[in-house]
Amino acid sequence: GNVLLKATVSDSAYCQWYLNDKPVSGATKSELKFPNLTVNNSGNYYCKFSNFYGAAATNTILVDVSSPPVIYNQPSGKDVKPGENITLDFDVSGSPPFSYIWYKDSIKIADSDKPSYALPSFITDNEGTYYCEIGNVCDTIQTNSFILSMAPQICIVTVDSGTNHNMVVWNKNTSLNIHHYNVYREGIAAG
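The structure corresponding to this sequence follows.
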């Protein structure tokens, strides 16, 4: 947005605006305009007037520009081995402080107010759809949702002696459906 800082003095005087006690280059008029305010414009501003009789400064004004959260490196789903330690995380930019709430199957996870969430020793009860909600003073957004599921443990392809057809057998220690699988013959993908 647009912001205008204005200082006046009753006599003619030289004017210099300061940001965090450093002169703002080219800011020597009684008005300091920000046509496109950004986070880089945040700080403490004041104007210092000087003439033949001396110098005086205005009170300091804080300009605090915040930006909404932006998520980078979205978390993604995966098949997890039993007992594997998993940490769910992502990167976020914007103006801190941020609030975090992790969800599993659309239900808030207790004590999940950190930017990462650990699942030590993954078990079947940890399977589900996860996402995190991130907020700051500007906005609240959420990561993409993703699925964590238990990986099948043993998969054997054999021939049924009664029908002479291929038979796939696995130990599926999971509560979720298996959406795809790969068949290998002697270590080479066969279908």
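The mean pLDDT is 87.
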